[in-house]
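Notes to self after the call with IL:
- keep both proteins in one doc
- input above output, always
- annotate only the second one for now

Protein 1:
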Amino acid sequence: MPSFEETLLVFTDLDGTLLDFHTLDWRPAAPWLEKLMDEQVPVILCSSKTASEMDDIQQELGLGGLPYIAENGAVIQPDVRWENAARFISEKKHDDIRQCIARVRQEMHLKFTTFDDVDERVVAGWTGLSCPRSVLARKHEASVTLIWRDSDEQMERFAAELARQGLKIVQGARFWHILDTCCGKDAAVHGLLDQCRPHEGSGP
């Protein structure tokens, strides 16, 4: 398994980065993934995807056991070899966010559709994922994913109300994501770097 004694870590997003935006194929990246693994360089996935999806993708890519960042930083999985390293999940959980935005949607008469509003077959149609992986895509722990169907003006009002609730909305490649204002990919990367340093050498 890659070593954290090396000075190099590679963080990569998935859709449109490691995975082809249209086909979700990772095989064009296989040669450099193999090279990084040969050089013992850890590849850390960082995405809006759920932890269940990330576990599945890690295994497919041969990266199982390495750290990853899921749900735009609302979930952080440490390396399986790190003793006493706790898995991070935002204090604002999925069900809390879901109930909050359902109330706001009704009060403000907003038009959007969340992954919770539909089943895995609809999610598969939206994403191009297989039905089994679409099931994983609906297993949010600390965020909500949605399709926005309203105006820019309504989005501004929605974002302002979310901020009052301690939440933020982030635009991804295909969807919008709502999570705790304290969370983000940047903060998650810095948090993982801090966890790397005490383990297996000096870290990055």
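Protein 2 (the one to annotate):
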Amino acid sequence: MKILAFDTSTKAMSVALVEEEMLIAEKTINIKRDHSVGLMPAIEALLDEVRWRPSELDRIVVAKGPGSYTGIRIAVTVAKTLAWTLNCELVGISSLEALAASSVYPPNTLVVPLFNARRRNVYAGLYRQEAAGKLTAVASDSHRSIEELLADLAQFDEPITFVGEDVPEFWEAIQAVLGERAQFYERHRQVVSAYYLARLGAERPVEEVPLFVPEYLKLAEAEENWLQDHGDMRDDQYVKKIKHMD
């Protein structure tokens, strides 16, 4: 099976071509850039490099969030467009799970992949590395304050490995609660690898392309601001106001 996988959940962009679990080509760029400009050229360049025709692709695997609202929307839109146009399968994978899966840990390790969600909030997951080399979810991915996350993690009486390039921003708070149980290793990959994303997606159920949506885990900032200004407005009042504006 020939798989195209890509992630633009953060400022990093990763694209990979994988065939039967073998990495054929991968490109990862970890700088702040416009993913709407860079993603398709990166995909086209990799396909040209390995001389794959788009029509040969069997499956598209995309990191579906959480993370950057704009980055996720771009990746999911491109994935759905390609899957629909090429008539190939589509699979969505949690961006946090993909980050956790991009490194290898000792058996039975608790792993917390983490993205900065601003204002002392984080997107975080909780996974356990099984002896067979697979990750299993211990808790659902969530968006919450770093304090709420650490309060839950404090209940685990065992070492916890954090992964993600945003972890150092919260390290002082993490150590204050978890002490020596908190672990962070720079040798671990701190951004998503599209290769490992593809390997996760090779084993997952296929999505229905028209119904597939991102997993933002929170409203966009513009939506939050709108609700703050109009939170007391009933649906019928909103409809009347829009009609009046027309």
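Annotation: Helices lie at 35-50, 69-86, 95-101, 146-153, 167-178, 194-201, 221-230, 235-245. Residues 69-86 form the longest helix (18 residues).
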